[in-house]
Amino acid sequence: MPKTVYYNGKFYKKNRAVLPISDRSIFFGDAVYDAIIGHGGRLFLLDDHLERLLGNSRRLELVPSYTFEQLSDISYNVVKKSRLTEYFLYIQLSRCAPERAHAYTDEQKTALLITVSPFVLAPPQKRLKLITAEDKRYGFCDVKTVNLLPAVLASHRAASVGCDEAIFVRDGVVTEC
Q1: Is-contact 82 116, C-beta < 8 A?
Q2: How confident is the model at residue 2 (pLDDT cuts 50, 70, 90)?
Q3: Are 106 and 156 in contact (CB under 8 A)?
Q4: CA distances from 112 to 8, 129, 137, 172 (A)
Q5: What torsion, rounded to 10 degrees, do the Cα atoms 156, 10, 80, 47 define?
Q6: Residue 102: what pLDDT?
Q7: Which residues pair with 12 in a beta bridge?
Q8: What is the pLDDT of residues 8-32, one digit of tens each?
Q9: What is the pLDDT of residues 61-93, one digit of tens each?
């Protein structure tokens, strides 16, 4: 069964989805997401996942163009359209902009991306081997990745108070503008 993709009101098959280059998740990582497993037309703890998604959205000043109820209805509609029995639903909210710029405006439309893929939760067949790893996710500010979320938020704050730039400082040292 092909993966079902929903983007801003349109359905696509796997590898046929069309996202505008202005979706800020592409260049800036300016998006929030959640992931939910489901079975038989039900999404596991959907309300909890949507509350976390919308809460994370608010923390990034990303004002959704969708209500809680709309997100719930759309999620179930996407699941129904997929015709899968067991599935993995990915839901993402991002900002769209007319051009590539760190700063954004509060009026920018929110994009909604939802994918549904087959998922089978099988009991473990063997004992798992695990390692621990240092959490370095936020220690790479000097690496130019497409996750520019701190720069996005700082640029917006600078623009909102009439400034042209935000200067990042760590331990009293300027690290980047």
Answers
A1: yes
A2: low
A3: no
A4: 5, 36, 25, 39
A5: 10
A6: 83
A7: 5
A8: 999 988 788 888 888 889 888 899 9
A9: 888 889 999 999 999 999 999 999 999 999 999
Q: Which secondary-structure segment (H or E) carries 157?
A: helix 149-160
Computed on alpha carbons and rounded to an integer, the radius of gyration of the chain in Å comes to 19
Round to whole Å and give the CA distance between 168 and 163: 14
Do the Cβ atoms of 19 and 112 come closer than 8 Å? no
> Under 8 Å CB-to-CB from 37, ≥6 apart: which residues?
43, 44, 86, 87, 88, 89, 119, 121
Amino acid at 57: S
Q: What is the pLDDT of residue 48?
A: 96
Would the pLDDT of 1 be above 50?
no
Instruction: State whether residue 155 is helix, strand or coil.
Output: helix
Site of tokens 């983007």: 7
The span from the CA of 119 to the CA of 131, in Å, is 25
* Encoded amino acid at 138, one letter: Y
